[in-house]
């Protein structure tokens, strides 16, 4: 990311954030933290991360650009600075990713004043953990094929259905939920709710186990669960449009990241360090020309992504305004996948070791990160769907459906 | 504050650079549409491929380009040039690539960058000629085509006030269009640079038989060529070449980005028009998705291109790294969209009558020029990872 030209206020804030983070970096957690918020499994991890988000929020590093009346600080252009500083300082990530990157911005666009006052502060402070109820067994890439029904009953809606791949569902107080309220129209028959989850009657959260053996995501069953009409976001039948708002923020979140964390060291440097530390055939892997070429290829893609971000803001160098922004989700998720796959290759024999084995390089990071990378190439619109979107919206080819 | 913090957000590509690029695009759209290019260089394969003729170019169009001042883009204002940043020049060269313009433009700009880095009075005199419309090319490559500045093309020896040049420079780009050869020669322990008129006594050109129909290439032979001090451009030719090298890579990268974009847009257009099984073939994901992947690769190359140009313009120590990354990405993107542009056009794409072959060959030539992706990455590995066995 290029150094932005900061206003005096922003510069002062940057210095403040840097100082605060240096002075308030949290102690090492007693339990090892997962790589991303989507793998938070234990109550201990949750409490630690929730405490950290609260501290950042109180310090003004979260919600900096949200209006004061909704729990923010009412600034402009401060959040990006805070995010960069958190990332720079290598502090833990913010746990409430769905609340920060999806629920809060969507509520800010589509919510009533009362909804904004009720829901946004808890998203920012991390007190209310959120999850996302979009995917269903029969509604993955074809997201509009929603089968979870919501039927009006007085001041409530009665919800029945089955949501899957619900990250953080086991800790969530709330869910952003898409339901079918009319069978007549595929897209116009959808309605969006802010649904209570934790301890709510008729809602069952059951953990799903990922290919890594880790949990962290769930399936959620709704059996005659009541959701007040006051928690409906935007109009009945407008659910698809609201969901598109959420997805725009979700897909952009990879770049704008709601907090610190991310890659702790530049990913290519990490691969170089691994290669220097790995022996094969009597030589270091970092001396193998083929491995060297593969690592440099990754370095070029990394630099390319960074410079794409810079060029996206230079209108004169972008023939089509959406051409670079719409690539972001595809390229960043595949970037991580290819990097971690290469890490597994380089680690060689030691890539076989699970994280509990003390000889596993970097606590078993490479194979776990590689397997987890499929979460990102599948979630929020698979890479195949992203290629359809790019081929259709940017290159103007006919729709593949 | 480190130097990095002063990198301009817009790569130094502002309103003036955009205007220059847009002007170049409009000019070439009008003066060199694809039908005109086809008539110029590809009426039939026999003259070039069987009879060994050089491919044609439009000297009238070139006169107009000289009047537009493009030869002087990389010449400082003090020498009568426009002194445009490399980022601005990249915009123009992208358009030259997008239109597969047969011309000595890239060769002349490259020679100008080297002369500018040489910085001597002799170099400045040649730059003034270039700004006034002369053309030039670099004669710096040995027979092995190793793309190393440290392997000079010629041998030089001092004789009184004169220097005598002997030997051959290989793979000289658009040599038959160049008025001046900027040649590297071993002089004692050093690599020196000389600017020699192409029509000087003892200089002969042997045309290479090449695939690309949008340029010429030659072996330039120097036999007992005597030059005076006015031709002695640099004693430290290696330094000048090494400083200019990232700029040379940027020029070829820009040409590749432009030609790749033409190949992408033309193939997309075909996928939208061609119907099979009652559908436009762009409907099929086996067609659509590779074109998206090509777009992603081209965008990566283009972003790296302007980053590299910007690093060069501000004299960053990362200029070489950025340029090698850009050339690697652009060579690979060029190879991929070239491959898909022929394949996805199907049977017609395999024929002479489909224009994709013009860009396929120009791209293939540029992919190899100054080193392909593998070569650039090998050099980068030595910087990023360290030398093997270190």
Task: Draw up the topology in text.
The complex is a heterodimer of chains A (401) and B (390).
Chain A: H1 8-24, H2 43-58, H3 79-88, H4 97-110, H5 113-125, E1 130-133, E2 149-153, E3 156-167, E4 174-180, E5 190-196, E6 203-208, E7 217-228, E8 232-233, H6 239-256, H7 267-276, E9 279-280, E10 283-284, H8 289-311, H9 328-347, H10 365-378, H11 383-394
Parallel strand pairs in A: 1-4
Antiparallel strand pairs in A: 2-3, 3-7, 4-5, 5-8, 6-7, 9-10
Helix pairs in contact in A: 1-3, 4-5, 4-6, 6-9, 7-8, 7-9, 8-9, 9-10
Chain B: H1 15-31, H2 34-41, H3 46-50, H4 59-68, H5 86-98, H6 105-118, H7 121-131, E1 136-139, E2 154-159, E3 162-173, E4 180-187, E5 190-197, E6 203-207, E7 217-227, E8 232-234, H8 237-273, E9 275-276, E10 279-280, H9 285-313, H10 319-345, H11 356-368, H12 373-384
Parallel strand pairs in B: 1-4, 2-4
Antiparallel strand pairs in B: 2-3, 3-7, 4-5, 5-8, 6-7, 9-10
What's the short story on this structure?
The complex is a heterodimer of chains A (401) and B (390). Chain A has 401 residues and is an alpha+beta fold.
Strand % of chain A is: 5-15%
Strands in their spatial order, largest beta sheet of chain A: 1-4-5-8
Number of alpha- plus pi-helical segments of chain A: 11
CATH topology grouping of the largest domain in chain A: Butyryl-CoA Dehydrogenase, subunit A, domain 3
> Strand count, sense and closure of the main sheet of chain B?
8 strands, mixed
Most extensive interface between two protein chains, with residue counts: A-B, 47 and 52 residues
| Proportion of strand residues of chain B | 15-25%
Q: What does the overall shape of chain A look like?
A: globular
Mean pLDDT of chain B: 96
CATH class of the largest domain in chain A: Mainly Alpha
N-to-C CA distance of chain A:
37 Å
- CATH first level of the largest domain in chain B: which class? Mainly Alpha
* Outline type of chain B: globular
Structural class of chain A: alpha+beta
Number of strand segments of chain B: 10
The CATH architecture classification of the largest domain in chain B is Up-down Bundle
